[in-house]
Amino acid sequence: xxxxxxxxxxxxxxxxxxxxxxxxxxxxxxxxxxxxxxxxxxxxxxxxxxxxxxxxxxxxxxxxxxxxxxxxxxxxxxxxx
Length: 81
What we know:
Largest sheet: none
Radius of gyration: 16 Å
Number of helices: 5
Helix content: over 70%
Structural class: mainly alpha
């Protein structure tokens, strides 16, 4: 399967799912994999190896959390009133 085939299939699935195809790209799958893998394993060095990154700083881009995610985690910790 080539990148072009994946691209075309993803865009076709968008139409079926009523998702804006301008927001969906094959590279999104790489980011999704990275976030899920890191969420389970918590091993950024192993993730960097899997993704083929020579620098962990590059891998960090894939697992950066949003401000909303940070705030939700803080609230779940119940350390702040």
